[in-house]
Amino acid sequence: MNGLFDFGSLAASLGRALAELRGASAAIPVDLVVPPRPEHGDVTTNAALVSAAGTGQTPRDLAAALGERWLAGEGAAICTRFDVAGPGFLNLFLDHSWYRGALQAILDAGVDYGRGVVPPAQRRRVNVEFVSVNPTGPLHVGHARYAAYGDALCRLFSFAGHAVTREFYVNDHGTQILKFGQSLAARYGQHLGLDTPVPDDGYQGDYLADLAAELVTEVGERYREPLNMVVPDVTRLEPEVVDEFKSWGRDRILAAFRATLERLRVSFDVWTSEAGLYEGGDLEWRGFRGEVGMALSQMDAEGHLRDADGAVWLRTTEYGDDKDRVLIRQTGMPTYFLSDIAYHRDKMDRGFEHLIDVWGADHHGYVPRMKAMFAALPPHDPDRLELIIGQLVNLLESGATKRMSKRKGDIVTIDDLMDAIGVDAVRFYMVGRSHDSMLELDLDLAVEQSSKNPVYYVQYAHARIASILRNAGSEGGEPPASLPQVDVGPHERALLRTLARYPVVISECVERRAPHRLHAYLGELAAEFHLFYKHCRVLSDDAAATALRVGLCRATKSTLAGGLGLLGVEAPERM
RNA sequence: GCGCCCGUAGCUCAGCUGGAUAGAGCGGGGGACUUCUAAUCCUCAGGUCGCAGGUUCGAAUCCUGCCGGGCGCGCCA
Fold first, then answer.
1. pTM of the model
2. Which one, out of A60, A181, A393, A483, has a CA that is 20 to 30 A from the CA of A362?
3. Which CATH fold topology does A7-94 show?
4. pLDDT in tens, A296-343
5. How many angstroms is C1' of B67 away from CA of A361?
């Protein structure tokens, strides 16, 4: 018996046969699909259509030759016959032995089924940075998409064989955090009865008033005097005082982030502070220390910097950007871009072979300068930085687009959404669409239809199987050492074909950075199971049939649980 | 004006590195529980794949140009 029991290895086997026919030294990639119509076989490939050009053979002749060759070789034990159809499709009819072998292989693999699909030579140490929301206000539903997407991507990468580090970049340096600190100071002053309005361009949200109240409880009137001196204009506060508000507020907000993300089942290995990039280190460049000083020194040494208009610029145009970019303003203040350079340099220094940043579409204009920066800095390989741009979430309320503004405090938080429809529904919903498409979230509809969320369809299949296995008693325990040599019926075969695709689905999700494909697959697998359940009695007097079907249940259950787990969704034993 | 993303069923969206008769969920019509979980299943209706050219044996998929929508185009982040 050979090991051609999932679509990946099956396709590879056909690729080897095709390569032999073509006189090629390495296997030719072959695409294998389940045809929509059963008379077109169990699996089908267009390999002959794709590769007939230049052989002097018609696609149909090549398909026939491929079929014969494969059937005489590696396919002998698992394939009964083939058809050549249409312009040159090769339709394969697989034997019962293939189906039993596939089931046994899945049962043997257990929770590891589909693991490690990335070939060892292609595995990388990958850093994935996502969410990275400014610590100036609560996480809202727009952020939930990137949290769910990024987390699913990390789980998939890890499962497939990459070594993944999940990272959150904290923008606690610069203008926005300054406004945040001032706004918090203003709210604090108000709690002490001072006339300190939140600045016009500050953060107006109620959450800051709540934070200020906590701060009063914690420190009492410690900052009354410095505030009293600047009433009513908090922007005139001494920087050292604002820093205290900034850092206290940042820590509170970050704690809230962690709590929300934990509830959403999203975790990070590393939290990097932007402000921290400016601290420490011996190297200094015009007063800049830390990672930033090191980055500046290096760029200067390599001739990438220029002074103009009182500012310091990076020559990004030499690497494809449409204009050079300012790193240090006329005022002497660094730009966000400078921080980002130091940050990404640091990530490379930490030994990652591949960096991924997941950004919202509102930052896509930033991509050219990032790629330029990456080309300018060692190892001068822009391909090692991958910027995944996710489209935004269009929030609808009462049928109209709702614009959220963190500064105005007009937001719907992730916690609000989780309260309303539950964590599983949020996670599943947020990875249900391609990251290239805008995601529409109708709040009223989401709440009203939460019980119809497709996640329950998938979970129900899992719970249903759990129930059957409970009823099976001892037979539901350990999988049998070997399956009975019974014929495999049409619904059982359909379910097995779907199960056999799982490793390929994982592979595609990773290659295309597309967790939504797993979302779609799980829906298909659940549907296939429900159909099987409808037509095939699992527990019966027929011991052989029962053994096969219990095995099928076990395999489906573990695959559903594994797939849901990769999306951060629970697989309940009962519903 | 330039750049990125999108345009597929009434709605929300898959399918896009070219393949056989374009799919799913929701919504609408009609059915199925004395049997392992009906949060299920079956069935019907519903389509100029934005428009127009091009490439080829074959285009929702690739190319060009339009049209429509989203997001950007700071010494903000």
1. 0.95
2. A181
3. Gyrase A; domain 2 (3.30.1360)
4. 999 999 999 999 999 999 999 999 888 999 999 999 999 999 999 999
5. 23
